[in-house]
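To: structure subgroup
Subject: Chain for Friday's discussion

All,

I'm putting the inputs and outputs inline so they're searchable in the archive.
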Amino acid sequence: MIIIKGDLLEGGGQIVRTSVALAALLNKEIKIINVRGKRSPPGLKAQHIAGVKAVAAISKAYVEGLKEGSKELVFKPSSRESGEFHFDVGTAGSISLVLQALMPAAAFSSSKMKITIVGGTDVKWSPAIDYIKFVTLPILRLMGYNAYLAVEKRGHYP
């Protein structure tokens, strides 16, 4: 199991998003300690939980510590899944931050995926959904990443 210190460098949620995405891609077990250790308050928030749940669903992962405020997270992926998935952040938490965790893990799916995410589209401290749609995805398409993003309704926080 790979141990990741969640309070290194910026000590925020990006460590969680990147770690679970890479764990799913590499099919490696990870444990994140001191999750969001440099944030106030530390620990998981709804959008981090939604991102971990999303990656867990497409990698059939076993997860421990997946609750709001948790400062420790264990993520054990087992296989890559495809098909249709629906994820709800549960608040107006950022859809784009959930996508930051989900897109790398979904990149190597054996077949097409349809993913619906309910949450915030334009949320403070995160990329606007239009940035993902009009900047990130076109650049990724140049590298062979095939994805389409439709916004049915805008969601703002709070």
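Points worth raising on Friday:
The mean pLDDT is 91.
Residues 13-26 form the longest helix (14 residues).

D.
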